[in-house]
Fold:
Amino acid sequence: MGIQIIKEQCTGCSLCVKVCPFCALTMTNKKAVIDYDKCTLCGACVDSCKFNAIDLKRDSSKTPNIEEYKGIWVFAEQKKGVIQSVVYELLGKARDLSEKLGSDVSCVLLGHNIKDKAQELISRGADNVYIVDTVELEHYLDEPYTKTIVNLVRKYRPEIFLCGATFIGRSLISRVAVKLHTGLTADCTGLDIDEKEKFLMQTRPAFGGNIMATILSKNHRPQMATVRHKVFKEAAVDKTRKGKIIEEAIPKTFLTSRTKLLDIVEEITSTINIAEADIIVSGGRGLKGPENFAMLEELAQVLGGAVGSSRAAVDAGWMPYSHQVGQTGKTVCPKLYIACGISGQIQHLVGMQSSNIILAINQDPHAPIFTVANYGIVGDVFQVVPLLTKKFKATLNR
Amino acid sequence: MDYLLTEEQVMLRDLCRQITDEKITPIAAQLDKSEEFPWEVVKVMAESDIFGVYIEEKYGGMGGGLLELCIATEEFSRGCAGIALAFSATALGTDPILLFGSEEQKEKYLPSIAAGKRLAAFAITEPAAGSDASAMQTTAKKDGDHYILNGTKHFITNGGEAEIYTVVAMTNKDRGARGASIFIVEKGTPGFTFGKKEDKLGIRGSATRELIFTDCRVPKENMIGKEGQGFLIAMKTFDMSRPGIGAQAVGIAQGAFEASVKYAKERKQFGKSISSFQGIQFMLADMATQIEAARALIYASARQIDAGSTKTVSKDSSMAKLFASDVAMKVTTDAVQIFGGYGYMKEYPVEKYMRDAKITQIYEGTNQIQRNIIALNLIKETSKS
Amino acid sequence: MNIIVCIKQVPDTTQVRIDPVTNTLIREGVQSIINPFDMYAIEEGVRLKEKYGGKTTVISMGPPQADAALREAISMGCDEACLVSDRAFAGSDTLATGYTLAMAIRKLKDYDIILCGKQASDGDTAQVGPGIATQLDIPQVTYVKKIEDVKDNHATVERMTEEGFEIVRTSLPCLLTVVKEINEPRIPSLKGRMKAKKAEILSWKAIDLDLEEEKLGLKGSPTWVSKIFTPPPRPKGHILEGDPEETTTKIIEALKDRLI
Structure:
């Protein structure tokens, strides 16, 4: 096994025992003991030990010429020529990071007839925009996109590569990371630079719950991470910003694809996509039936928000799956989340607890939803929600 | 309590529990309201091989016996006793074929029942013939290679939904109980129609309907056993089926009990959960004990029948049915009591358990008839020794 | 047609509770289950076989206990199962996991479609599926919500997007990751359960696969957990009880400035 306790240095403080997510550490005769059947070598304990008594062997390989990797790249996802808002959020974060690193920020923009979008990226904080503009890249396809980006990364060697955790982003970046044989951390909720060693500190929820882990990719470049919608603030627009636009030509052989896009079907829904909504009004089992979601739609309309749902309401067939918030549904972090008649099972909480403000309405004062709520109303949703709708309407003049 | 079930029986129990939790419990209240037949659940049960658990492997079954049937019935009833009946009433309708059917009849009917492709029903009760089966009015008159059935059966579980009916009719009225015979009648036979569907207190997810026979010609090879054996076959069928009713009762009680424990832990009064009050604790303790005793009796009687020991089967299976159904009534009433005012409301599940429980004291022999059977057998046994 | 389904055994998070005092997860007594998203992959793998004929093999990398997950997959209708298990794989991140599984799949040889759940419920990375496809150098389609048809060595599928879906045609062999909407997993039948109990499960260790040691486990994992911590609990909220007229007015007062 690659991990052991250095007995001479272990003081029996038991900090590591508390920190192990897999309960693989116990104290025996005032020394930490590892249960190797439970240990997954996750390494969480190593940092917790103040006495360097846990030795974890990670003689990992290294990206060659690692010191030559410089700069932060952001994948500028576009659909039908429209830059996705998560790109601006990543640019906001990338600028913060670039100040700590003293490096520049670049975007990589793939598509067809999209050259005019480069300036938008510059005004949002990009110093350079690498563009590949060719008909084969008009719509997202895994293989040509992957090969193009791998080619550019190998050529320009960025230190950090950020990408939105969108349907496209997650598919693309996983392939890119494997091709480059580097580390990738999904769904980061925090990104920072280690002051001493200048590593990218990637923080994300881990081990299926509300434990956070900070993940490093010390020996590999680029350090790659994806970030969901609405986690970071959008970069402000500065039309006066200047930047370089670099057009790249990619050999045609890189642009072949074994998958073909036959059609794009946009399903028109009256409601806003909950992953992007600033305000979500969500309903659960407490609504008692599908007909009562109309009440939530009214409130959502007044607030300019979208309607979400707990798994219970989806499983009961009251709401379509696309509205489901929670572990098996969507993770959301709107500015305001209003939970109506949702008890707050942990699977629901993990999907919405990073919302800015949570307002819970529930009959049961002991419902777990109140433990994460900033505001709560104990009462009957059928009374409270219409009252809120009426009063918000009046207050907001809508 | 550990009933020392075999690995296969545990597997069956887990499967039925999963079907109950995922497919039955979520729709129980809805079907109780709408009185729809649970075809969706029947499909799942069929795909899961459940309909064949008590049928021999050579007819496409799983080769189990009455204990397996009881395990499945109990688990389904924990979710909804009405829905469970689609399964257990099929077993009742199948029992006469299993017990007395000819090889040809078994080969013809059992495989499709085991596969869940066709449901079955047993028809004995008539408007004027409840506990007194000898007052039966339905007749079967021989006409060449056929019998011609005339009369009405009512309160028939799975009526209208089942494809295969085992029907008791009088072939010789003069001989009273010894003049009855049993016929297999398939849905769609000319002269066989369905009458009114009952609006019931409980088990509303099951179909209870009238069967009407008007010059209905049934081929003579559809007679089970011999002419005049109808009453005997019916009694043997009930000996086999009573533990199943008991299992249904235990399932109902178990469901109500589980809901009660959960509620008692959650419900706060006077600043404490009501499960911390001794008054509630004693009720829960009694409920659990009664359920366990009923279950033990059911499993023991089912095991005895599966082992082929039939000497005291009538008495034992009556005891099992009697005790378990009385327990179900008691436990479900207490469950409503623990829920207090909420228990009386349809929004909560326990009042349904109480309504469902009542039938188990009535059908397949009222509990008064069960006591008669027990007492008669006791007297017979003691006078012999 | 040969179908391979990749599954992962995960803790059943529906049983996980948070300790209100320490604000950490209580893991004791938590059962292991098949990753919920993988259930859809298994079901789809069995349906494809039922429709087009062939064989469905389920594969998992994990501790020896993952045997139970594989048996459950067999009970649902998979024909064969393979467990890839070795201490040498401990500490694998998504890169090392994708590599190891890809090498095991290579050893299984003939495959037309590889199915994975869209992500695992414990890690939520959605990286291993595409990782396997890349290591095997085959095309992938992620977030598949429907397999329209498979013929002429191609599959036509519907792929979920933020706005709706795309119809994508891919050559075989390919890897598809599937979402909840694709099907409703069956309850394993009694016969299936009995078959699963008796099934032989292929068991491969690192030595059985043609692996490069430095790409395995901790050594082959570029990402390291450097620190774990419990986020500070949310400040206690303002929970109002009483007359709805009053409580709603107070809430509107508190929220209105933030909404304008």
